[in-house]
């Protein structure tokens, strides 16, 4: 009985190993680099009332209108709520986001919501003209805000909601009927891509600045400065400010220990109408309807692997991998050539190739831990088997 039990324990450990190894090899999703503005919700400022009809025949009256947000570092935003999910909690902290990171992800009506924002209050302050276009009689700021919010809710959630004020209801019907699809607006300030990598002794990039600001400041982090990593342009000149479309590079000195560095850009610009703001708590997502000049920031990161170790008596096949400037060794190149084909020279080794050459891999720590665990398990099995004689051995 004890031998089958021990075998079962060992088999279970070995069966679990492939799945655990896969988990060890998989990289966790990297957090998205911050881009644009961050703000705190002040609350609902200009609003009327809306009527929400439930499927069970219930009727509920709710406030509908325009919110205000205070931007960290300076600036104000006017926003509407997106959908009914969550409450708009005053003092909740929000961060600028693209549509893909919000309830608008995959919503085919998102472009029509942006059209409504561009063609209604507060972007259009001519309330008389807006009322005439909608056939709404007379509109106040409150009824215009309520009608706009109702139209957004209908497209975002498809809910049976109406404005309590007749003029606001006519505005909501007009906006929903006339809305065309517009593309997603760009970030107020962003860096593309948010991360770059490569070998030391080179310039990593480019990272492209995307902003509506006239110019932005460029600041490498303290770790970058301490390692001698510089943020430069394509010609290698240090960069302290940039404009929309500027290309930034991380210049990493040869021999720098493996690591990472980041750069942050700061600027002041208007947040584009249609950008969304989300929060980590269950609160209603906000969408921008108006903006003053607001403080914005974006961050990008560079990473570089440990330099490839060159065996004694040989020369590296690439000059870029170790930054030594040595010419490629034809003999070393031919040794790495595929059978029947020429050697690949001058191409930097990938991370997987470096691991293969060093005899290591990303799973090495896990494999070592698994081996220790199996040894301990084997010792337990031996103790179990030797604790009492097996049946028949006592005779």
Tell me what you see in this structure.
With 395 residues, this protein is α+β, with helices and mostly antiparallel strands. Among the domains are: 1-30 and 363-395; 39-178, no CATH class. The chain has ten helices and 17 strands. Strands 1, 8, 10, 12, 14 and 17 form a six-stranded mixed beta sheet that branches. Strands 2-3-4-16-15-5 form a six-stranded antiparallel beta barrel. Strands 7-9-13-11 form a four-stranded antiparallel beta sheet, with no helix packed on it. Helix 2 (110-118) packs antiparallel against helix 4 (141-157), helix 3 (127-134) crosses helix 5 and helix 4 packs across helix 5. The chain is elongated, with a radius of gyration of 31 Å. The chain starts with a helix and ends in an 8-residue tail after the last helix.
Task: Describe what is shown at a glance.
With 395 residues, the chain is an alpha+beta fold.
Map the helices and strands:
Layout: H1 2-25, E1 35-36, E2 38-53, E3 59-71, E4 76-82, E5 93-97, H2 110-118, H3 127-134, H4 141-157, E6 161-163, H5 166-178, E7 189-192, E8 195-197, E9 203-211, E10 216-220, H6 222-227, E11 230-232, E12 241-242, E13 247-251, E14 259-270, E15 276-278, E16 285-291, E17 293-304, H7 319-322, H8 330-335, H9 351-358, H10 364-387
Parallel strand pairs: 8-17
Antiparallel strand pairs: 1-17, 2-3, 2-5, 2-6, 3-4, 4-16, 5-15, 7-9, 9-13, 10-12, 10-14, 11-13, 14-17, 15-16
Helix pairs in contact: 1-10, 2-4, 3-5, 4-5
